[in-house]
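Appendix B, Record 12. Input sequence as logged:
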Amino acid sequence: MKDKEINYDLNHIFSKDIRDNFLFPLDTYRLFLEGLSINPSLFYQKWSDVNLQSTIDKYWKPNQKLDWKWSLSFPFFSLLENYINAFNDPIIIGFSGLPGSGKSTLGFWIDSVAKELSLDIKVISLDDFYLPGQEMDVAITDNPWDVPRGFPGSHSLDLLNQSLDVFLKTGVLNSPTFDKSLRDGKGDRSGWCDSEPRVLILEGWFVGCEPISDLSKIDDLAEDKFNLSLSQSEKEYRILIQESLIEYSKIWEKFDKIWHLKSSQFNNTILWKSQQEGEMIKLKGSGLKGNNLTNFIRMIQTSIPQQSFSLINSDTIVEINQDRRINFLKTSNYRF
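Logged structural output:
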């Protein structure tokens, strides 16, 4: 009998402390796991194993929530393992989430656990393909937010296309790294990384966003619905960004699937980005603050129409609230 035909009772599978941390019905969770072709019973048995827990716990941030572990990190990692077991060819999965939502935290955990378990999984960021510092300064000069990076048009798209195409053909990935703390928080390219993953995750805050044909109607609506009060220079620059997105959409076509870590409210990113930069200042002594941070947040809010993030053609949605607690799950049917 196929797993799909079995009526799992998650009350008898998952411990009470895990179930009590869910903000969504257990039936939603069951359908989510089964949609990912994950057997709930075997899944719980694996990830609650004491030996595995001791291996992976060291890569969490302090007091990591159980819902984040059991309804995002563990299911996503199990899916990646299924990809490795089911397919021989290299595969790319896109992962989208607003700045500060937790993408980098999840990516670090996945990379670290994959190394511990000797699995050929690699997470890279769209941010790593930012243009080198001086080229970036020229490419986005006179942008209306006076930010040093961040929006479509500030990346080395030719390099990204080439790197991903070579990876899909040969399994070899050659990718740059970008350190946002360099140049007093403006950031710069800091090196290169060679790897041969079987499954590659490319994460970014506007991954999956498609260009919009008519911005005039969107901009008029935005002022009413979102109270953004877009300046004329912002409206004009948004047109350039939409033209850039045409090229980025060719990148999205290389993905096998897209996961969307979706914010319950777009403006949650205001708090998240502020927290993120504060942590960077503590860790590296440099980051965005003051007017530079305010301008960057304004860029996030206005450079791409907020409606675009609701239209991402994702295969899996994990919605989080302002506290980064997961309150909704939905996925298409994955079959291996």
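The two ends are 16 Å apart (CA to CA).
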